[in-house]
Structure formats: C-alpha cells, structure tokens
Amino acid sequence: MRRVQIAFLGVCLSLAAACGGAGAAGAGGASEPSGGEGGGSTVSSSGGESSAGAATGSGDDVAVLLVDVIAPRLCESLRGSFVGLPGDGGTTGPASGSDPTVGRWWIRECSASVDGDRLSLSIAGTGWTWVDRESMGFRVRQYLRFDATAAFRATMEVAYDRPHRIATIWMRPDADVTAAVTPRGLVQAEATNVMSGMLGGLLELTGSSASARAQQQVADEGSQRLRERFGSGFTVTFAMDNEQMDFMVGALARGQVPVRPYEAEAGVTWSVNQRMQLWPSGLDVIGPVLDGRGPQALDLELEEGEGLIVEAICAPEFERFYDQMLQGAQPTPPRGTRVMEFAHAGSAQRAVVPALGCPTLLLVTTRDGATLPARMRVRVTPADAPTATARAQQAATGPTVATGTTTPTTTTATAHPVRIQMTALTVSPQSATGSRWDMIGGEPDPYVIVVSIPGQREVQRTEAASDRHEVPLDAWLPGAFRPEDLPLRFSVYDDDVGSDELIGVVDLAPGQIPASGGEISLELRSQDTVPRTMGTLRVRVQPVQ
C-alpha cells in the first residue's frame, strides 16, 4: 500500500500552500458537493485574496495540476505492489480500513497518461483470493488464482479540513470503468448433497461440469465486483500532525481518515497497517518493504489461528515461484530469512526486517498441520520509530533484530522476464497432404496448446474456433517467462470428431525475443519428413519491469 501512497505524498506537500490557503474557505464559506458521504470542496489555488486585476485560480486549476503531476509518477509506485483484496461481508466507510484482506492483486503492468483534464489509468496483474461460495448444491472453498485488468478515466479533487489538519485527494472515475477477471487453474465445485451430486453427473454428460460453470461464475462476478469497486473511486488522505499518508478504495468525507488496526501514535508513521486473514496452506505477501527507505520493522499480532511463520525473501525469487505455479508447475516455495514464528494466537512480536540487498517481500504462511484460518494485524514502520511496542520491548529485552535461520536469498542479474500474448492465428486452406481439413469439405477448427519444454508442462490451451482460417486471439499466457523457462512450443490442432489432427508446430526460443518487446510472427510447420508451412502464429512480447 505504501508504494501507492508515495506518488501522492509529493503532490499533497507541493500543494500544501493551496490546501492551507483554501482551508478557511473549505471550513467556512465553500460547501461540500451534493451527495453527502464522500463529498468535499475543491480548493482554490489562489491562496485567498487577490489584488485588483490579478487573475485568480480555481479548484479546476488544482484538479488539472494534480492530474499533470500524478500521471507520470503513478505507475512507478503502483507497479510491483501487492494490493490487498477484501472478503465478503466487509464494512463500509472509514471502518473498512480494519477489515481483513483475504488475497492480493499483484500489479505487474501499468499505463498512466493525461487525457484532457482527466487521468487515464490502465493496470493489470495476477493474484489470488479466498473463495467460499455455495450455489445450487455445489460449494467452492479454495484459494483462486486469477489474472485481472482494469482501465478508467478519472477526475481529481483536493480539499483541506483545517480544524483536523487533514488534506484529502479524491480520484473520481467516469462511468465507463472496464474490468475483467480470468480465473487461472482449477475451480473445484464439490457437491454438498446427493441430488447435487447427481446433477453434477448429468452436467458432465452434456459436455459441461459444475466446476466449469463455477469458473465462469467466478469470472463474471469477479469482473463485476472489480468494476463496482473501481467505480466507487479512491481517497488519499494526509494527516498534517503526524505526516501520515493513507489510501483506500471508496470515497471518504473531507476530514475523515481510514480506521486502521494499529491506532495512530505520536511520532510514528507506517508504510503498512492492515489486518490479514490466511487459510491453511495459503500464503500472503507484505511489501516490498525495503526499497530505499532505510531499516524497517514489522509489528505483528496473531489474533486467531494455530501458528504462523514470516520469512523475508527477495522479490525476484517470489516472482519466479509464483509464475511457475501459474504455468502449472509445483515449485518448492522459496525459503528466506526467518523473521518471526508464532506457536499460538494471542501473542505479538516486533522485529527488524533483515536487509537482503534486494527489494524485499515478507512471505506469511501458516504452520504445517494448521486446520483453522489465521487472522493477524500487521504494521511496518521505520526501525527506530518510537512505537509503544518498541518501547516495551526495549525496556524488557533490548531491540530485536532478525538474524535469520536460513541462508538469505540472493539474486543475480538476468534478462527481464516477459509476458507473452497470442494475438492472431492463420491456418493454411489445405492440410499438409493437400486435402480439405474436414471429411465433408469443411474449414479447420483450430486451437493452440502451449507447452514449456524445459518445464515439461502444459501452460495454456485455447478454445477451438469453428470453421476459421483466420482466428483473432487475445490470449495472455499465465505469469511471466524467463530465459530458463524457454523455449515454449506452440502446437496447433484441428478439432475433429474422433482424433484431432496436428496442423503445425513452432517453438519460441530466448534468442527470438526482442529486448524491448514487440510483435513476432512465428511460422507453423508440419511434422512431415519434409516440413511444410501451415500458417502463422502472431505473438506479442512485453517485458516485465
């Protein structure tokens, strides 16, 4: 969350004079816009009185200035961040700042620009969330991995509550927010009674299944919820008294700040302050926590559960681990430096995050054998922050520093990982033998299977396109790929009754990938003794920064 806030900190401070100058107007004559909750007066950029003949500023001037300042900085702060995802049945308004997160959206792609007087933002990434739903006698209860994209245009407003010394920035999206969620991996829908078990068997006979329908429902509901949440806007607050920046989805009223699990303390600013819930065999990520801000310390209180482990790892190691999971492998979880371990609920610890010489993530997992979910509150502050926990700890035992029980993870300089998207497929009008594709003279029904040759696993499979020589595709492969994950083999088949016919094959090797990304045209070749060109597959390569 802190990475999201950094972009706004400089903006709010640079506008401090404007915020302060308009404070009297905001607290007195100017009124909040109609609509009640979440409203706030946009401030004047003039700072109060103006001399005769001088041009005066307006709230619109400040809004446009915000857009111009934020647009070039926003993606630098968003990219690489892990955004907490709320569960069902949460609260609204400031109190939602203490609701537990049940998953993460890892922002890996971001594009921001100025569009007139609006900020245009497009973000994409992968993630995971806990799903516990029951419908029509079937229940889905698991961690779900997904890809998600969102895009919108938004106006900016700023206001200052002078009595409480709280500056507020609102980002208000237009109505045309777009968002899409694509589940990755299996969605397991289990029958909860005999009748639903019989229904599941009937669905299988019709070529469908309860799990397939659950996957589609998850995609539809996830996309709708993401559109609704982004459509509600965003609020950034800055408390002048303790210089604390905060950020949340939704609109807060002027002067309101989110309620966080750890209450504000004099002289203490935090970069993370949230509640998390973690189910057995799951994982959660905090960070990056070390990116040039100096030594940081983690406060964690285990409120519920049967134990917990926190380790510090280098971000590239986690990225590789999670990409391999998305691509169907079963990699060994990365091991880093032990920071904390809890044997039972009702205890709290504070430890300095070890410096690993890399962007650092804190990986949180339940202990082996846990059967109950763990709920915790976490906070990351500068290591020398005078928190109540730190003072009590120093009085009892002196400062605690994580020395680590495992070898710290190290990273080496390698080529940037890349995202790969299949964009278009063209198939020859005739098969390799010169005949039509179908027995009755029909057109091919092509689909693509993507396999990682080093990983010896299937990565992606597209749906068959009926009777098409030219097939537009918009199929992003899951996760990101590194040189050691390549080559990838793309095999194109014709979907036939009985056995499917192989149309052609092509490999994508590391040496074929442009350093700056771009479009590549791959030539499909038959597998005959004398291979023939059977079409082309176009792919787009995008480096992950």
Key terms:
13-stranded mixed sheet; alpha+beta; disordered N terminus; four-stranded antiparallel sheet; single chain; 8 helices; 545 residues
Describe this structure as you would to a colleague.
The protein has helices spanning 2-14, 16-21, 23-27, 59-78, 194-205, 210-231, 315-326, 388-396, and strands at 82-86, 100-115, 118-135, 138-161, 166-173, 178-184, 189-191, 234-239, 244-249, 272-278, 283-290, 296-304, 308-314, 337-342, 347-352, 360-366, 374-382, 418-427, 446-452, 457-461, 470-476, 488-494, 501-508, 518-525, 533-543. It is globular and about 85 Å long. The longest helix has 22 residues, at 210-231. The model is unreliable at 1-57, 191-208 and 399-414 (pLDDT under 50). It is an alpha+beta fold. Strands 1, 2, 3, 4, 5, 6, 7, 8, 9, 10, 12, 15 and 17 form a 13-stranded mixed β-sheet that branches. Strands 11-16-13-14 form a 4-stranded antiparallel β-sheet. It is 18% helix and 39% strand.
